[in-house]
């Protein structure tokens, strides 16, 4: 059932509503209040003044109206009732307000009362001009999320009109409503827009009221239905059968200088089973920093190559892509596999040569950055797409690479992430993916000790760096900015590089940051890898993928400025060899509450899943996932911390509705998705 169209409104209002995503009547009635104001009672002015500090609504007649010019231009309006007088102060005002609040006019005003130098006053109250004995509202007044040019009265009017026109058919069947003890849709929505005076205000504001529970369940059910249906639709598409595991696979396994961990072997079996199927794999490979995802990806690529297809690996940064290229090419090229390298910074001649190798099929594996999705890149026979740090690519980018298959077949897709996804998030935002987890680190990895140190002890830290380098260990020193910012007053990478080079004249100090030319950057990284550079000063370009086993000390400057996920990724650059590793978090006092929580978490645990769980608590799911840029359906009403029980019910009910998606169930699913997603499903399918 398509969402009903809203009748034409004045162009400007309609355009402004559309900017908020409010295009249909159903969009409007699901635009629920942020909070409520109680305009159902009038408090006498004297009583309101005695209990100052609270929000009160008063009513009185204007007895004085003047524009004061000192200390700044402002409108002063005095109103009075039978109990006393009250000053209304407006710092910003229009000429029309001066006329509107003329002497003799009756005004209803509402805000907190403050006691200033001249007595009790309201500063910038919400107000309206009323007649004597004008009726009071019988329900709490909703306050809606708004946008430019959309006042609360305009929104309230648009929503009230939509509620008169909308189709109130309940899209959740009676049996499910009884099973979940849910309110019916229409009374739930009406209560949230117009709560009666005797409503449980605490439950309303905390979103634990049964009306909110109904909205949250409907939203979660729509998300689960959409993702699971997308998963089914994908299974109807054809994909290459990558059944062979022959010379390449065996040769690669034999050439590895280490054995796979049990966890690597388990996830590899899961991936291999998917690649044999005739529908596209859509699997997320999660593994903590240093757990060995790259070798699993290389073995998946080997299966594609053994089956006569090409594989592509796309990474978000040139440093990470080059790291993958060097490592995998070193494994595969001795086995006779041509590996192509594609990145935006390649010279035109090299890019053309790489494109020709890809198009002819000579290159069996292609590694690169966003350059892989350019129109000029044509694959001969693409069977597998591997996307590393998948959350750092937009949906459109992932989709473009997936569409480069041939013979009408969709390539299999393996996404990798070193940012573990907590279980509740996996059940909602990744309900359409199969998820594999490498939950074991390779043997011989040393534990990382993490300490937080005040910026005042910087000299001690430099001494420690010196001592570590003299013992033959290498050091990362990470800074958040490239050049001076007066606003943030942070130590910059270039300044820190100069300071350390001067303080440590007997050591080789290197510098790498995002604005350097790729060749310069790579030369410094190569020197660090070869142990010719003792201390590497860097911005977060080294966040992922850099692998130097001899580096065992990490200093993170202004650690309070980094997010938990980023701190964890950076720390993962050390602890890759057998030497005991240390991560020092330099911070600037005083610390805010969130920064304190982050640094405490880093000191307490090196478990990526526990860090991800706490990060979700601190930031919420939208920011945690980068969800807007990645196209995931943002949850507006459900809270994944408090509503986990609802997530599980919605998942099970969605599965049961789709299992028997024939007859009436098709209509139920279609109607529910039309109501809650209104055609915004396409990005959930990547």
How much strand content do the residues show?
A: 15-25%
Structure classification: alpha/beta
Question: What about the largest sheet?
Answer: 7 strands, mixed
Number of domains: 4
Average pLDDT level: 84
What is the annotated CATH architecture of the largest domain? 3-Layer(aba) Sandwich
Instruction: Count up the helices.
Output: 26
Rg from Cα = 31 Å
Residues in helices, as a percent range = 25-40%
* CATH level-3 fold name of the largest domain: Rossmann fold
Instruction: Assign the CATH class of the largest domain.
Output: Alpha Beta
How would you characterize the overall build of this protein?
The chain has 686 residues and is an alpha/beta fold. The chain has 4 domains: 11-36 and 143-206, no CATH class; 41-136, Beta Barrel (OB fold (Dihydrolipoamide Acetyltransferase, E2P)); 247-438, Rossmann fold (3-Layer(aba) Sandwich); 448-605, P-loop containing nucleotide triphosphate hydrolases (Rossmann fold), CATH 3.40.50.300. The protein has 26 helices and 22 strands. It has a 7-stranded mixed β-sheet with strand order 6-7-4-3-2-5-8. A 7-stranded parallel β-sheet has the order 12-13-11-14-15-10-16, sandwiched between helices. α19 links the parallel β19 (509-512) and β20. The radius of gyration is 31 Å and the shape is globular. The relative contact order is 0.10. Residues 626-633 and 682-686 have low confidence and may be disordered. Belongs to the helicase family. RecG subfamily. Keywords: ATP-binding, DNA damage, DNA recombination, DNA repair, DNA-binding, Helicase, Hydrolase, Isomerase, Nucleotide-binding. It holds the Pfam family DEAD. It catalyses: Couples ATP hydrolysis with the unwinding of duplex DNA by translocating in the 3'-5' direction; ATP + H2O = ADP + phosphate + H(+). It is an enzyme of class 5 (isomerase).
């Amino acid at each position: 059932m398509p969402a009903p169209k809203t009748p034409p409104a004045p162009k400007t209002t309609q355009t402004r509503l559309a900017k908020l995503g409010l295009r249909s009547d159903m969009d409007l009635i699901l635009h629920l209040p942020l909070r409520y104001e109680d305009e159902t009672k009038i408090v006498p002015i004297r009583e309101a003044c005695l209990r100052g500090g609270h929000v009160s609504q008063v009513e009185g007649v204007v007895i004085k109206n003047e524009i004061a010019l000192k200390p700044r231009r402002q409108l002063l309006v005095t109103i009075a009732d039978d109990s006393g007088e009250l000053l209304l102060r407006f710092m910003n005002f229009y000429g029309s307000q001066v006329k509107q609040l003329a002497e003799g006019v009756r005004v209803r005003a509402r805000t907190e009362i403050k006691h200033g130098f001249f007595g009790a006053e309201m500063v910038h109250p919400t107000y309206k001009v009323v007649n004597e004995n004008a009726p009071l509202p019988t329900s709490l007044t909703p306050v809606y999320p708004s946008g430019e040019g959309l006042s609360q009265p305009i929104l309230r009017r648009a929503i009230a009109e939509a509620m008169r026109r909308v189709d109130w058919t309940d899209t959740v069947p009676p049996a499910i409503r009884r099973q979940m003890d849910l309110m019916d849709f229409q009374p739930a929505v009406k209560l949230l827009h117009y709560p009666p005076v005797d409503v449980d205000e605490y439950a309303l504001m905390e979103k634990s009221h049964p009306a909110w529970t109904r909205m949250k369940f409907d939203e979660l059910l729509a998300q689960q239905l959409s993702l699971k249906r997308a998963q089914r639709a994908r299974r109807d598409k054809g994909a290459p059968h990558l059944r062979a595991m022959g010379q390449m696979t065996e040769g690669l396994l034999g050439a590895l200088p280490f054995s796979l961990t049990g966890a690597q072997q388990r996830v590899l079996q899961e991936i291999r089973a998917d690649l044999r199927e005739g529908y596209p794999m859509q699997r997320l490979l999660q593994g903590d920093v240093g757990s060995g995802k790259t070798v699993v990806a290389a073995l998946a690529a080997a299966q594609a190559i053994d089956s006569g297809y090409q594989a592509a690996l796309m990474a978000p940064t040139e440093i990470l892509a080059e790291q993958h290229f060097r490592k995998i090419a070193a494994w595969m090229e001795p086995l006779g596999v041509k590996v192509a390298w594609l990145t935006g910074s390649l010279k035109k001649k090299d890019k053309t040569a790489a494109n020709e190798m890809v198009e002819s099929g000579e290159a069996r594996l292609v590694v690169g950055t966003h350059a892989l999705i350019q129109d000029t890149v044509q694959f001969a026979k693409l069977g597998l797409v591997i996307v590393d740090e998948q959350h750092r690519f937009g949906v459109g980018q992932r989709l473009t690479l997936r569409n480069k298959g041939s013979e009408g077949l969709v390539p299999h897709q393996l996404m990798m992430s070193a940012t573990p996804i907590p279980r509740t998030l996996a059940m909602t935002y990744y309900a359409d993916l199969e998820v594999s987890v490498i939950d074991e680190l390779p043997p011989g990895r040393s534990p990382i000790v993490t300490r937080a140190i005040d910026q005042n002890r910087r000299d001690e830290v430099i001494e420690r760096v010196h001592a570590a380098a003299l013992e033959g260990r290498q050091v990362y020193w990470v800074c958040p900015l490239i050049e001076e910012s007066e606003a943030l007053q942070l130590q910059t990478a270039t300044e820190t590089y100069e300071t350390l080079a001067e303080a440590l004249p007997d050591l080789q100090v290197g510098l790498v940051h995002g604005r350097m030319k790729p060749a310069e950057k790579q030369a410094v990284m190569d020197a660090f890898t070869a142990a010719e550079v003792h201390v590497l000063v860097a911005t977060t370009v080294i966040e992922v993928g850099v692998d130097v086993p001899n580096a065992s000390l990490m200093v993170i400057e202004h650690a309070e400025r980094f997010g938990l996920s980023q701190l964890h990724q950076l720390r993962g650059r050390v602890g890759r060899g057998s030497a005991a590793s240390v991560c020092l978090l330099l911070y600037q006092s005083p610390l805010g509450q969130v920064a304190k929580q982050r640094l405490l978490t880093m000191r307490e645990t090196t478990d990526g899943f526990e860090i991800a769980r706490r990060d979700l608590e601190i930031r919420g799911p939208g920011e945690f996932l980068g969800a807007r840029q990645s196209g995931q359906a943002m949850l507006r009403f459900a809270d994944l911390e408090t509503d986990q029980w609802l997530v599980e019910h919605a998942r099970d009910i969605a599965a049961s509705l789709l299992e028997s998606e024939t007859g009436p169930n098709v209509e139920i699913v279609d109607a529910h998705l039309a109501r809650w997603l209104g055609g915004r499903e396409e990005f959930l399918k990547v």
